[in-house]
Amino acid sequence: MEHEFDVKNDKNSQNFNDGQMNGVNPPLCEVGGLAFSASAVLMLIISAVVAVIISLCQIAEGSDAYTYLRYLAAPVAMTLGVIFSLKVRKVSPKKMLRFKCNPKYYAIAVLLIFGLIFFASDLDGVFLEFFKLMGYKPQEASSYFPTLTGGYMVLALLVMAVMPAVFEEFLFRGVILNTCEEELGSIRTVFIVGFCFSLFHASPEQTVYQFLAGCAFAFLALRSGSILPSVLMHFINNALIVVLAACNLFDQAGELMMPFEAMVTVKVLAALSLIGAAIWLGFDRKPYKKGDRTKVKNFFIYASVGIAILGLMWVLSFFVV
After folding, report:
1. Phi/psi at 256 (nearest 5 deg)?
2. Distance in angstroms between the alpha carbons of the first and the last residue of the chain
3. What percent of the chain has a predicted confidence (pLDDT) above 90?
4. Which of 180, 204, 206, 269 is the most exposed place for a label (fewest CB within 10 A)?
5. Average pLDDT over the chain, rounded to whole?
6. At what angle do helices 207-224 and 228-246 cross, to 10 degrees?
7. Which of 220, 181, 168 minimizes the C-alpha distance to 28?
């Protein structure tokens, strides 16, 4: 069964390469850079529009309406940014969306995200303390969430877990990953996607975790040949955070409150999950694409506008309370 899925993915990859060689709407790495920049610009514009709406409607800061409006800005921006970039470069969205893969990758996805959430995320705490020395004031965890009781939980999961898992994965593990891998190679693409994913969130307190998660999502998408395992990982990550918040298991600093013995047990299991997922993926014999490192600059030229905007937002977050 595993070989059947691998053969299908190889055929998809071959068709993808044939399209490039024949010069038929080739999905070049510049498309990914353009999509990233367009999404960043649009998020800036939509955020400004949201701010005007909030002001005109006198929506109170911290209210549900205020929180949801802020969360909706990024998915809308990404959707429009992807549509714009694909239309301008005449690339079919179907080439960015691959779904079929061996079921084992869904199990690997669960192991990876469990390890990332409960083990790798601790690295954020180390860097956060360093950022605090530079004057950064982290946002209270409670300010991230709307009402999470009763039926409101369904709405929260839809906006905070389902939508990011779909739209962010389409941009990062769909468009950027699939347009870069063919020209830049597998390993370079993993780090590029991780960098872009982390920077797009412009959150110093989560920079390290989002980079690691972005790389893990990208690596699994490359190994599986499908966007769905990373969509599953992304959904579990966000949904679990929402559920834990609903259960009041976060303190004001956003740290998970758990008895010491339980915390140690979870950390050990999370570390083993990461190791197990890495070993499992290590048995995957799918070849890595080498690509051309000289073309990396092509991506960053087109992504430079987005990098400048989001980088500035990242820096300004140190001075805006």
Report:
1. -75, 125
2. 54
3. 61
4. 269
5. 86
6. 140
7. 181
